[in-house]
Specification:
The protein is of the alpha+beta class. It contains three helices and twelve strands, in the order ββββαααββββββββ. Strand 2 and strand 3 form a beta hairpin. Helix 1 packs across helix 3.
Length: 187
């Protein structure tokens, strides 16, 4: 490191041979410093886990944004300085959250409408509801349909459940990147 006002590299920023230099001013003095050199990690196996996740997220965004429908979906939710690409990366890195499932009026009858709230960057791809009796046998399973709000999903029961007390309701949500989130409750 060279400092002071009267040195041969005063006011210099750039490369000298293979070595890069840059100038800083600290307390009125110019300081010429060598640029820091980052160690290069060649193998992806040696990358930290968060770097691997971000790498996978950027690859996902690059792959899906060639589809104009998906690009428009992400562009619709992008606000401020965000872009469709940054929203696709965010969608990959942030899992969906099943925040509310209304099962309070379910008493084993057919035709009961469950309301499921799923929060995500963009609406999730699918929501599956499974109802099991206390013995673990599956009473029914099916896809919920999306409400026009984009966050609420509805599932209408199709089979009677005579032993609804102690039954298990399982809700599985799958988002566009393919990540699944599961929510369970015993009635």
């Amino acid at each position: 490191m060279i400092s002071g006002k009267n040195n041969i590299l005063a006011g210099y920023t750039g490369k000298l041979g293979d070595t890069g230099f840059y100038k800083r001013t600290v307390n009125g003095k110019e300081i010429i410093q060598r640029c820091p050199v980052r160690k290069k990690v060649k193998s992806r196996l040696k990358w930290p886990s968060q770097v691997n996740r971000f790498y996978s997220a950027t690859k996902y965004a690059k792959r899906v944004l060639v589809n104009p429908e998906i690009k428009a979906l992400y562009a619709r939710v992008a606000t401020g300085f965000n872009s469709a690409n940054s929203m696709a990366v965010k969608d990959f890195l942030t899992p969906a959250v099943i925040s509310n499932v209304v099962t309070t009026g379910y008493h084993g009858r057919t035709g009961y409408r469950m309301t499921i709230r799923v929060d995500n960057v963009v609406p999730v791809k699918s929501v599956t509801v499974t109802i099991e009796n206390p013995n673990g046998e599956i009473i029914e399973s099916g896809q919920a349909t999306m409400h026009s709000s984009g966050t609420d999903w509805h599932y209408v029961t199709t089979r009677p459940n005579l032993q609804y007390k102690g039954s298990l309701v399982r809700v599985v949500s799958c988002d566009l990147p393919g990540h699944t989130v599961e929510w369970t409750r015993v009635l």
